[in-house]
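Can't attach files on this board, so I'm pasting raw text. These are the components:
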Amino acid sequence: MAKEPKTLDELFHDTLKDIYFAEKKILATLPKMAKAAQSEELKAAFEKHRTETEGQIERLEKVFEQKPQGKTCAAINGITEEGAEIMEEYKGSPALDAGLLAAAQAVEHYEISRYGTLIAWAEELGLDDAVSLLEETLEEEEATDEALTEIAKTAINQEAQAA
Amino acid sequence: MAKEPKTLDELFHDTLKDIYFAEKKILATLPKMAKAAQSEELKAAFEKHRTETEGQIERLEKVFEQKPQGKTCAAINGITEEGAEIMEEYKGSPALDAGLLAAAQAVEHYEISRYGTLIAWAEELGLDDAVSLLEETLEEEEATDEALTEIAKTAINQEAQAA
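---
Top answer:
Structure tokens for the assembled complex are below.
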């Protein structure tokens, strides 16, 4: 059976479902990472981002015109699986926090890429409200990534190395 | 059996294996994406990046002090699986190229995050040659991401929308 050719509008909504699934997965993962982190600063960063993620999910729910739906996002499953491996393999090790932090940055970069794409498509589709909501989230993700880089530079990597 | 605490040096090498696996996967995936792409500009961008990826793999081989090894990278498997879904679900659709391009940018962002982390750790470990090699690749990945954004802005998204 021939399928209907899919439009940018459908691609936008498919990708919205993908990031909605991803955000929910991240919401469930951050408390585990906060619990595993050894440094108080990194714990606090993960907890702060967990709260932000709740707001990001609410924003996505506003972008959906109908009932929000998720769609299994193979990418976030794979990226968070790497974080879980770090928690397991580096438990009790001086390099644990450096590994957790890097895993969190891989998650942030996936989101930065996805939100950047969604904003471009929402602009093309003339969805102005969606553009504003998605931009708000993109800014938070970029700020989180920068904050993690700062923590990495000032503390975590040196600790991992000095131990 | 208690495991030995793992150091930053081990984390660096584990992550090097992870990105080595990822680059090889990307090398195998890019020709499929180039074949699937409808626009000549996007095809050319994927083919160019395929050649660059060969050089990036050679650089990683120089960074390994011993025989290069890969380690299954769940993240890249997940990210490339999403690209494969786009090729399947959007085949013959006007939005195909926009979807392929977005999938490629998700790959680039994963790599940007990983190389950024590896450079920070190599600096911490005093591995100057590794820093230079990894920085060269990071610059290429960032340039690829920017080139893809330009193609998206100037052509692909409009085509997907106009169709």
